[in-house]
Amino acid sequence: MNLSLLFIVPAITAVVILFTRSLQQARALALGGSVVQLFLVGNLIAAFQRTTSGLGDGVSDFVFQQRMAWFPSLHIDYFVGVDGISVAMIGLTALVVLAGVLVSWNVTKQPREFFFLLMFLSAGAYGFFISLDLFLQFFFLELAVIPKYLLIGIWGSGKKEYSANKLALMLMGGSALVFVGLLGVYFRSGSTVTFDWLRATGSIMPVSDQLFFFPFLFLGFGVFTALFPFHTWVPDGHSSAPTAASMFLAGISMKLGGYGCLRVAMCLMPEAAQYYSVYIVALATIAVLYGAFATMMQTDLKYINAYSSVSHCGFVLLGIGMMTRSSIQGAVLQMVSHGLMTALFFAAIGMLYERTHTRKVSELGGVMKSMPFVSTLFFLAGLCSLGLPGLSGFVSEMTVFVGSWERAETGYRVMTVLSCMSIVVTAVYILRAIGSSIMGAPRSAAFLQFKDAAWNERVAAAVLMAGILIIGITPFLLNQLILPGSEKIAQQLQRIILPL
Amino acid sequence: MNMFTQAVWIPLLPFLSFLLLGFFGKYLKGTTAGWLATVFLLGAAAISFNIAYEYFFLFGKDANGVYQTIVPLKMTWLQFAGGLSIDMGLLIDPIAVMMLVVVTFISLMVHLYSLGYMKGEERFSTYYAYLGLFTFSMLGLVLSVNLFQIYIFWELVGVSSFLLIGFYFDRASAIAAAKKAFIVTRFADLGFLIGILVLSSAAGTLDFQTLIQRLTDSTGEGLHTATATGFLGVSALTWGLLLIFMGGAGKSAMFPLHIWLPDAMEGPTPVSALIHAATMVVAGVYLVARLFGIFAFSAPGAMEVVAWVGAISSLFAAVIACTQTDIKRVLAYSTMSQIGYMMFALGVSGGSGEAVDGFTAANFHLFTHAMFKALLFLGAGMVIHAVHSNELKDMGGLRKQLPVTHLTFLIACLAIAGVPPFAGFFSKEAILHAAHLTHPAIYWIGIITAALTAFYMFRLYFGIFHGATSSHHGDSHHHGHEGDFFQKLPLILLGVASMTAGFIPFGNFVSFSGRPVELHTDLAFSILPVSLSLVGILIAAWFYRKPSEMPDKVAGFFGSVFTAARQKFYIDEIYLFITRKIIFKLIAAPAAWFDRSIIDGTVNTFGVAAQTGSESISDLQTGKVQSYAAWFVGATLLLIIVFIYFIH
């Protein structure tokens, strides 16, 4: 399996889209590209299973590695490889991209550029997940930021310039912090300079340096994943973004941050991670509860889902910060699960908005009658968000809770209990949203006339729903993919070289 | 042993019915969808009865004549990296088999009854799809092998209940009731979840059999860890069990988590019969019974709480039931009261010897109650259809118009009032006897509740079927028929069950030890409760058989107590105060404000400051992004230089 194809295919698709002449051509190409990509990813998963099944139980290694010198003088390589966790994230990306293309089927404004940017963004995300060279990874991270600025700034709604600026600036600020952290790794881990992730995890950075650089890396990536208090780009960014951009943003981009926190910050500096773990957990708990309470007061569906994403991404950070084997596993599951769920939620909100031209809960009501499909979709996304068994959210949240409980110190226990409380708050805001926008008497006669989902919307929903149901009903399938990788990370985190 | 693997079809058949009707129901005309679902359920019921026969009479006992726990199927569903795992499987033991019979039988009755009751509804097939989903979840709950499996299905019955309470989703009251039911039980489930975490981390397993074995083995490590560690002077084990009980109390509408149950009556009446009377609401009792070994032998403190919560709920609800005028609400409070009975029966039966028979008594009452309470609700559905009202004042003199309903309702009332030889008499006697042995105070609460139960049930009976024919009823005479055969059949079958279920030698089948026990029947012991029940019935007859001023006089005599009971002791208002005034106003609103004003305000201030700053430095920068980007790049370079200098 040639991993480079994973970002080359979308990149080529993106470039070819630039030469199309019409919406029809652009979207057909984008769809074709995403479907090819999905097959490629399916092939990757199959090949990965075949290759790793020979390694024996619980062994995790990066397979399909490729290495080429890129800037030899600086010891920067083009170096890629995947383990089960990155494969899972790649799978998530493929599903969200395909669904995103489908819901954007009728973009009339500059369709060529729109699909170009979507494809471009996805290429960045794929590249990010396969990189084993930190500089290469950073390069892809940046590639994934710029399109978002344009997507919101051009195709957005509401105070789009403000939101686009805010998002781009905060994410770039995050990137700057990450870069500082990476420089620390570059210079201070090992005897020679290196950006090689494998080498850097094998060597041990002096603890004092770790303590200094860890916050840069963690907070930097944390901005991407809505770490409190750097989360305020999320509500504004989402509410102004066009549907597909919201889906990409919450479904993929926020996961870049979680993945980076786990794979880069935590793995490269385990001692610092131990030291800061209590702060991470505290911030995560705040994000979980505070995000949930703030969601209760929102009146715009997109704000509801955006704040709820802050709360749900808090579970990712909680799982990472707890640093136990199950909690790391839970964090990874939550990234995949939340990616699918939130993309579905934004897709459903987009479908509602296209028809009713409002996202205000108070102006909606009783759409179940005219749009049973869209309503069911919204309902399922909501139920997934509140952690109903059978859907993916339950599996991942419970894994985070079980993992968090493994930390027996009183402070950690208290924070676990506090985070658990969010399941009640989530139920409150989700049911409020469902109760007043989907259920109830139809708001007006016009509400009886809306057309239910079109074929492209149905397929998009089916793609995401399939992922949610597969994880929710047969979690062992995804679990066997990510378990070895999570255990390996947990082992790495539990290496302690000196008492702090 | 593998013959019990067929049990997997019991939950799967209703699930298939759910999928089929969920996807294709809209293409089915008339009552086809309902018949389809009923056939699926008939299959599930047939397998359940077959399993009950095979288990209780043929293969369930081991060589010593003790009923064994059989796990014909178990697979790892979710492996946690830390070692625990959620397994999915089937667990067959006496209480599970008993519940299978109850759930499939009542569900089948409700399926049949709804064919007529829900005919002509716009979302007829959706209704049956939801019934299938509920039945699947409830059966999965009953068959759980693992603490987390039961939690999973526990949540699923919760959502099915939400869907069915909110079935008439264009009614604001139905939505509010559905939300309330879900959120209150979710709050209770928070306790359940944390309880699971506490217990499983102490015992190192989530598997029921291993868990119970480890936490009741006084020499083992699991029990030692669980009792040695603690919080606020209470051991981890007791905390875990109490929190799990909190989940059970929420689902079973125990005080003070009961407030959702009366409102849940917004759902279609057959749903109330199935979910909110016979099956889902007894899940809490089932849960405590499932973990009974741990409760009884390792955590007497938790047991005591179970007993008192049950006792208080039973009396509290009985008092309220006497004052309500909506017949479904009376039945709802009556359900709460009877579940309280089951709960305290479990709670008082700690210790050893005869006291443990309370376990059998609780399950016996669960069984008989399911029959007569489902019957009461289905009868109430007939009445409501006849008069188009839930209010007692709109009813009266219906015995001629609804003869079958009248007779079966009377049987059910006699059964719940504990009049021999109807079913409730036997199970109630067993419970009172168990309470008498260890908790005299709870025994007296039980006696008073029994008298009140007889009174309010016959208040309903006389109010509906006797007394003056109300004006409302007069004009509805022409369409006040009693439904077709399939609506009456469930009433008749449940009526027969309510008459005869008491004669089942229940102790031969269900007991904690697995060995047959003889349930206590003693004429001398029965005199007091039975005569009190008869007094209750007579007072009800005196008050309500003919129009009378007595009820008002008595209400006046009790004055504010009566008003408070009628207002359900203001528990709803307390909850409203907490949610509206404290959670929304004092927590959520400030959080939202803080986020927009303080945190985002800070971010914006930085933005403005940076913009002003960059503009003042460089006029060459025109776009905002570039200028900020320049700042970041500059800052980064600066930092690089600093590090290279200071670190190297």
List the helices and strands and how they pair.
The complex is a heterodimer of chains A (500) and B (648).
Chain A: H1 5-17, H2 23-53, E1 63-71, E2 76-82, H3 84-103, H4 111-130, H5 134-155, H6 160-188, H7 197-202, H8 207-224, H9 233-240, H10 243-268, H11 270-296, H12 301-322, H13 325-356, H14 372-385, H15 392-405, H16 410-437, H17 455-473, H18 475-494
Antiparallel strand pairs in A: 1-2
Helix pairs in contact in A: 1-2, 1-4, 2-3, 2-4, 3-4, 3-10, 3-13, 3-17, 3-18, 4-5, 4-10, 5-6, 5-10, 6-8, 6-9, 8-10, 8-11, 9-10, 9-12, 10-12, 10-13, 11-12, 11-16, 12-13, 12-15, 12-16, 13-14, 13-15, 13-17, 13-18, 14-16, 15-17, 17-18
Chain B: H1 9-24, H2 32-59, E1 70-79, E2 85-92, H3 94-117, H4 124-142, H5 147-165, H6 172-203, H7 208-216, H8 221-228, E3 230-231, E4 234-235, H9 236-251, H10 260-263, H11 269-278, H12 283-290, H13 292-298, H14 300-321, H15 327-347, H16 357-387, H17 403-417, H18 423-438, H19 440-465, H20 471-475, H21 485-500, H22 523-544, H23 550-558, H24 560-566, H25 571-617, H26 624-647
Helix pairs in contact in B: 1-2, 1-4, 2-3, 2-4, 3-4, 3-11, 3-16, 3-21, 4-5, 5-6, 6-9, 9-12, 9-14, 11-16, 12-15, 13-14, 14-15, 14-19, 15-16, 15-18, 15-19, 16-17, 16-18, 16-21, 17-19, 17-21, 18-19, 19-22, 23-24, 25-26
